[in-house]
Design brief:
It is built from six helices and eight strands; from the N terminus they run H-H-H-H-H-E-E-E-E-E-E-E-E-H. By secondary structure, the protein is α+β, with helices and mostly antiparallel strands. The chain folds into two domains: 61 residues, no CATH class; 106 residues, no CATH class. The chain is elongated and about 75 Å long.
Amino acid sequence: MPVFMLTSSDAYLLFKVQLRLADYHFEQAQTLEDVQNQHAAFIETFNTTPHWAHRTRADGHRTPVEVLGWLRGRIVEPQRLRELFGRTEWRRTVNHYGFVRVQRFYLYAEHGLARQRVSIWIYEGQLRIEYHQTLVARYRCLYDRKHRQLHDVNEPLFYTTPFASPQLELIELDDEQWRKFQRRPARNYAKRIAMFGHQLSLLDLGPPHSLYGP
């Protein structure tokens, strides 16, 4: 789809048209998909309805589709869009304590979402945990896009949602006692190889020649 620069008056006109044609339908939408469908219907109506500004065109074109229909945008692959916008996504299952694991980190999401799949987004220094497009937790983070490595998380922020567990905690913990995220220690494979590289003998029988005499 082609992109055009709008002046302030153009933008004002577009919002006024949306107010008249679409806002009522937006208010009736119950889900994000409903909003997207209503927006698509508004764009279709806007582009196929004769516009007053085109009433005197000599070529007889009266709608935006007729006036601009010859223009074609360039298709961009989804993978390329993800690279350009730089947003990283994971899907994780919340464990029975309410945590998710992202690489070497355990991050609290929501206890009430135990055994549910959540989306984890990283964008512009923020890590966001969402369930059904509802933000449940947010962290500041340090993420290396080149090596796709999460180095640090901090400043957790949790949101009140309908997914909170109705079960009361047996012991209430304050912010100092409640560890909202934890980093797992790195595995030292070289050390493990060194530990298991030498097999000790079951019995200490001395050097081999001692079994057969001098």
